[in-house]
């Protein structure tokens, strides 16, 4: 038995953050019903990296496993009636609509809580549901830029670089996932449902608990340097360095060990405070000039022998092939009816008694419409009528 078996989640979210949060609940066994327009959710038609599939693109495929698809027109009276029926028997409702949309569609918290007071309602937004930025677009790069984190890395005077992943979307998804689980635990103890609000700005801000406390409590400003330090609040050398045939990362080493590993006598005996903070550009440059004389494998072996914290800079190909990744079973593989054999990151939390599982891959648009409506007691004749009038979309079997 999986942890959330018997729970029903209505996923009315789009793009990445909401669908990923709902997918995590599905990975733990919840019956996740993806509520999407009759012609499919927006992400079905737009893939990161232009990674098209056969019938489902890779972006949608990666964010919507362990879900059933109900394709329905929420603006129709019949469609809204069906949603109310589903809400009455559901445990969690997730939405990340723009401000005001949930109210216009009649799926705001007050309306749904009146139908089902035990409902856990997760509302996700870019900046919060009220306040001066409520109408701003909640987009990952824009929130990364606003978070302050970009100005903690890289060279002084150069344009800050964004993270190489959809960082804000991901941390917001996990915040919503945690919020839903916590609210379900509260409901188990008290019988009370509640509204859970998560926004991208708070999620990426609170992720920087340590860094922002250094600024707000310690009063230490962000100061980028001429050399490309990986973090303004960590002493040199700290960052990535070019070798003869690639790149490596070095983190906060002992200078004597670093000196021996790199055959660089000038690094021996350096004062940590002086070299690491006051003269960190000079220190970084000295290490850069020493590292580039070695091949990647050779220098990593030398650094490891001296106990210097270091490691390779991986490509995605390197990561997927890594033996620890294989040992951890970080990636999962399964067969999809239209996309073939799928290999994708799995669920990252291990449970001794209640492991996660993949019961089915990302659904085709309206693939489960008939089954979901039959669960509600809708007759085959009425289902056909709803399809004929465009209220629902269905996948002919």
TrEMBL record:
<dbReference type="InterPro" id="IPR044855">
    <property type="entry name" value="CoA-Trfase_III_dom3_sf"/>
</dbReference>
<dbReference type="InterPro" id="IPR003673">
    <property type="entry name" value="CoA-Trfase_fam_III"/>
</dbReference>
<dbReference type="InterPro" id="IPR050483">
    <property type="entry name" value="CoA-transferase_III_domain"/>
</dbReference>
<dbReference type="InterPro" id="IPR023606">
    <property type="entry name" value="CoA-Trfase_III_dom_1_sf"/>
</dbReference>
<protein>
    <submittedName>
        <fullName>Formyl-coenzyme A transferase</fullName>
        <ecNumber>2.8.3.16</ecNumber>
    </submittedName>
</protein>
<dbReference type="GO" id="GO:0033608">
    <property type="term" value="F:formyl-CoA transferase activity"/>
</dbReference>
<dbReference type="Pfam" id="PF02515">
    <property type="entry name" value="CoA_transf_3"/>
</dbReference>
<keyword id="KW-0808">Transferase</keyword>
